[in-house]
Amino acid sequence: MGFWKSLFTGAETDTPPRDKDLSAKTLTEVSSQDRGAQIVFSTERDIDLYELEELCDAVGWARRPIRKVRKAIEHSFLVVTMWEVQGNRRRLIGFSRATSDHAFNATIWDVVVHPDYQGKGLGKTLMKQLIKKLRSEDISNVTLFADPHVVDFYRNLGFMPDPEGIKGMFWYPD
Amino acid sequence: MGFWKSLFTGAETDTPPRDKDLSAKTLTEVSSQDRGAQIVFSTERDIDLYELEELCDAVGWARRPIRKVRKAIEHSFLVVTMWEVQGNRRRLIGFSRATSDHAFNATIWDVVVHPDYQGKGLGKTLMKQLIKKLRSEDISNVTLFADPHVVDFYRNLGFMPDPEGIKGMFWYPD
Fold first, then answer.
1. What are the residues facing B39 on neighbouring strands?
2. Measured between beta carbons, which residues in chain A are less than 8 angstroms from residue B141?
3. Which tens digit of pLDDT belongs to each residue from B128-170?
4. Which of B64, B68, B146 sits opposite A166 (nearest CB)?
5. Is the C-alpha dihedral spanning A20, B100, A69, A126 positive or negative?
6. The pTM of the whole model exceeds 0.95
7. Residues annotated as region Disordered (chains A, B) (predicted)?
8. pLDDT confidence of residue A30
9. Do A45 and A16 contact (CB within 8 A), yes or no?
């Protein structure tokens, strides 16, 4: 974990779950950081979408309509965000989400860590939170589509490219 | 289309949509067949799950708990089934479904055509129905994970493996 302490303490809030079928408590996990700041993970979906847009801008993603981003978050099975919290200030520094059929398969989308916070193991921790939550929901098939430069990042987390020759494919209109 | 006539007639039922956000009318499309039988496509989810299990058995898939299959169908964004209809008898001969965030991405799962009906272009027609519906819902990124022996089937439908080096990856627990 390098700069960040690896100690996590579960701190479940009493916010009711958004989706009864998810049967998931809103989860906030806290990682202590040196110098008084904390890294906090949350499955809350009440995100300032302009703050999220800023985060995505910072890594150079193409802008997407806020309206569609809101809909995508609403209809994702799981959203895990990462925050730096210092006193009563908090800053969104990471985001990830997964679609799912709530039974067998999940697909992870939109994993992002702010450039200022990259290279500290935080992306790995964010992904581990997401995977842990998916597994706790009895999802056995956790999948994603990785850009070439992050294939090794996901490989180190236990993801395998093209297992048994299975090919990720994208439809392109004629 | 070979044996099957390629003429489709849209015949929308007045069944209310299951998911308001999908804003999709339940769609039944009909393809005429020689000898009095018809091939019918439907997005209805009221499927006899034992009939679906029989279909999946016929192609040699491992059995899955009915309870989980029901949940997966309920939480899929879209289900398209294919039926042979003769008089008032109907037989489930194909199935497909997709998960989605209802905004950007969809992932297709569980595409199956009964062996007796393979090699007639029906799998292709089933997929085209599914893609058409996803596109009509403004989903721009249609994806799937293809077993090696069906990569060419999907390629012929316009799916590209590993576009720009993007890798499909599956998580395997340690």
1. B31, B84
2. 170
3. 999 999 999 999 999 999 999 999 999 999 999 999 999 999 9
4. B146
5. positive
6. no
7. 1-21
8. 59
9. no
The helix-helix angle for B66-74 and B49-58 (nearest 10°) equals 100
* Residue (of B72, B83, B66) closest to B126 by Cα position: B83
Domain B4-165, CATH: 3.40.630.30
Tokens of A54: 């800023």
**CA angle A105-A107-A108, nearest 5°?**
145
Check if the beta carbon of residue B171 is closer than 8 Å to that of residue A131: yes
> Tokens at residue A117, please?
């916070």
What ipTM was estimated for this complex?
A: 0.83
Q: Quick check: B104 pLDDT over 50?
A: yes
Interface test with A, best of B23, B69, B170 (most A CBs within 10 A): B170
Interface test with A, best of B101, B129, B137 (most A CBs within 10 A): B101
Contact A69, A28 (CB under 8 A): no
* Residues of A with active-site annotation: 154
